[in-house]
Amino acid sequence: MKIQDIEAIKLLLATPKKIAIIPHRGPDGDAMGSTLGLYHFLVKNNHQPTVITPNDFPGFLAWMPGSETVKVFEKDIENCTRILEEAELIFTLDFNALHRTGEMEHTLARLTAPFIMIDHHEKPHDYAAYTYSDTSFGSTCEMIYNFILFLNQKEDIDKTIATCIYTGILTDSGSFRFPKTTGNTHRIVAELIDLGAENTEIPVLLFDNSSFSRLQLLGQALQNMKLFEQHKTSYTSLTQEELDSFNYVKGDTEGIVNYGLSIKGIIFTAIFIENKEEGIIKISFRSQGGFDVNQFARDHFNGGGHSNAAGGRSETSMEETVKKFEDLVTKLDI
Ligand code: 5GP
Ligand code: MN
């Protein structure tokens, strides 16, 4: 981050302010960890922050400290719009373009308060007065840790803040496995543990709190998986009917996409999830090594993300969407 930006932000934060903190639509562990970590830091510094998520966050993150204070835009548009209009400063975390907030985009776009973007996605849009964007980081949470250091306020990181930051680093790094996990990531994580982040309890809260029906839904997704061995690709899908038959709740499909990469020789995978209510197929892409799924998602499925983890959407039927994917895959030279 530029020195002059840090100095300007220090000045902005020198007096108590009403502050809105926004993650992307469909918030994940990193989105919730970074927004709530920053929330607790700002409360500690006498500000009045509010985290506003575009839509609801999944139940497996509901244990996170401060999650009970989170406002959901979609559920309470009037109140959230008022909070946004009254905000003197707006942080947007873990996303790079206002359209990633869905319906909230239009409200955000007409606000006059300065924006601060902290994010690790490629090709950030130029809407913020201050942009801290760096794709070398595996998570926005790691950047929040650095941001607090830039402000010379490391001593403010307590157990609560450490817990939030730890959660986002853990989830976005695939439990410290993905390529952007560095020695420095581990040094930060070590400090967070020393500060009180419960490193054995947090993974249990996140990953070992599953319902039986969620496990059966995973079974269905594994049954549905298709292989294109010649093209080092796999994919699976879940229709609305299948989701309903396993009592799907938000968050149940989180992480399922990764199983497609666990097959020897497979370096590209996708999951297609039908959402009848929104009339779309939500897609997640994952890759190992040099195949750039961010570019693939941008080129073909109206999406984006990172080079090894991206998402997109399709407004055609499941059959047509999957057919389009299969046609693309059989032309791929990977
Ligand atoms: P996931 O597959 O876990 O939903 O998302 C993987 C990555 O891709 C995340 O960094 C997420 O922010 C990004 N992503 C997911 N869906 C979309 C999308 O529709 N558009 C864009 N631009 N990025 C997405
Ligand atoms: Mn992230």
Fold blueprint:
Blueprint: H1 3-12, E1 18-22, H2 29-44, E2 48-53, E3 71-72, H3 77-86, E4 89-93, H4 105-109, E5 115-119, E6 130-133, H5 140-150, H6 159-172, H7 183-194, H8 201-207, H9 212-224, E7 226-228, E8 233-238, H10 240-245, E9 268-275, E10 280-287, H11 293-300, E11 304-305, E12 309-314, H12 318-331
Parallel strand pairs: 1-2, 1-4, 2-3, 4-5, 5-6, 8-9
Antiparallel strand pairs: 7-8, 9-10, 10-12, 11-12
The structure holds guanosine-5'-monophosphate (5GP) and manganese (II) ion (MN).
How would you concisely characterize the structure shown here?
The chain has 334 residues and is α/β, with parallel strands linked by helices.
Structure description:
The chain is 38% helix and 18% strand. It is of the alpha/beta class and 334 residues long. The chain has two domains: 3-206, inorganic pyrophosphatase (n-terminal core) (Alpha-Beta Complex); 212-329, Roll (Diaminopimelate Epimerase, Chain A, domain 1), CATH 3.10.310.30. It has a six-stranded parallel sheet, with helices on both faces. It has a six-stranded mixed sheet with strand order 7-8-9-10-12-11. A hairpin with a 4-residue loop joins strand 9 (268-275) and strand 10. The chain starts with a helix and ends with a helix. The model has no long low-confidence stretch (mean pLDDT 97). Manganese (II) ion binds next to loops.
Rg (CA only): 20 Å
What CATH calls the topology of the largest domain is inorganic pyrophosphatase (n-terminal core)
Structural class by sheet pairing and helices: alpha/beta
Instruction: Give, in order, the helices and strands.
Output: HEHEEHEHEEHHHHHEEHEEHEEH
Number of helices: 12
Helix share bin: 25-40%
Second-tier CATH architecture of the largest domain: Alpha-Beta Complex
Biggest β-sheet: count, sense, barrel? Answer: 6 strands, parallel
